[in-house]
């Protein structure tokens, strides 16, 4: 082929690739080759507009293809990316301020938090959010320019606050739900309370094992409810879990208090949920069980009267004028007590009951001195103080020391039951140990009560009285009247120590032991099937085998019944040979390989997940009181849940970029999706 033909072919191909019909009506050198010896056509074609344009475009195409220069579309996209990044940069400090307020439980809005925002001048109380944003803008020129310009959409209004707060709550919730579903085993913890706006709030918390074999109890959300029936509450619980994305097929436990609408065997919440999810075993809150045991045992008349006087004493001194009298007595004393005020016998804070009794005993001399001073006043307080002074008799003093002594034995159990890391096995063991300690006291009542009696005499000396027995009749029906060998039949005088040991100490110990055994019997029965996993004996006895087979039958088909018995025997041999000491189900789970013992591992995970107490829901109520106050009582549910998630889950990181991506799921005037 000649050079001329090559050139002709070249022009033809170039113009053909970049062809614009409106500029090239002639097909020669575009769709057809140039005939030979047509030089005039070649010269004419080389000067045509469409050829020159095609050459330029082809050069641009090659440059773009080889990435020597960006395309127009790419340039437009790059400008769009820069604009989006700038938009996101504007919103980052706003989001960070809202997250800060949520983490620190600070109210955001003020009296007038709308309209234009001036960085250098605060016209009125426009809330903490704007105040923090204004303070930050003083050191951030970019933020200052953004807030002070005339742009219509600044994203600092109340509506956008709610959206950012809701986005933060959703992000935290999704991260928690991912861990719950990955565990494939969880228990639901629920409780109900009334908030400051008289709305019934049902709190949903979840107990599960994370991928590091750590026991977690996490708050999920509040659900506003209108009815407290079992059907309504069960529906609210299941719908609340489903709306969060939790897979309810993995529900293996339920933890509530003992109210009939929650624990009822026919139409209670636990019964209705068990109909849908048969493996969701109900466990009565152990902390509530202990509280009920203490409260029921305290119905013994002298004990009940003593606790009533303590409550009256707290109410009497719960005013600045009267409490200042105690403080002045403490200041004038040679030694300073550890506490300076009385505590209330709280109905829900179980540890505080012991603290209330212990603090009163420590402050007793100052309380007596304060009551004597107040009884000389010329107002109604004097009468009340005189009545309270007369309540300090022998029966009160001995009952007070008995309560202090026995409450101390329940203190350790009470604190442990409120821990998130305790499992059902450890709770049952602690309850049994407490009962054994109380039974030891019962078998040595003479020695134990002797110490109590001596301390009571020391308190009696402070108020200048001698311990004595109340008036006794031969046929007494309304008060204890024991007859002992120490009684003188002629004068009907009894040994005082024997009388109070028989009428107060022994009945209270017996009642306390009986209540603990009865209240924790259900927890022990639940744990009974799992006992075979923790035995180090190589051979299973008949009782263990029967209990374990019943356990397998209950959790079938989640647990493979065919392989589980063989796994159990090999597992027990491992414990025996390696001399592994297991104190809790969580300890066993950490040494149980899921690949070697899949069924035993699953049973241990279920046991660890079974609820022990509802302390986590109770703690969420404390957060509710701090977040939704009387000044913030009109807060909507989404805002309440978002702020609560930020306040409780401080360990879950929420970044502004995550919030922006969550907000970008909705169409907005300001483009923020990269």
From TrEMBL:
Domain named HAT C-terminal dimerisation: residues: 596-651
SUPFAM superfamilies: Ribonuclease H-like
Domain DUF4371: 71-267
Pfam families: Dimer_Tnp_hAT, DUF4371
InterPro entries: DUF4371, HATC_C_dom, IFN-induced_PKR_regulator, RNaseH-like_sf
Recorded superkingdom: Eukaryota
Protein name per the record: Repressor of the inhibitor of the protein kinase
Species for this entry: Aphis gossypii
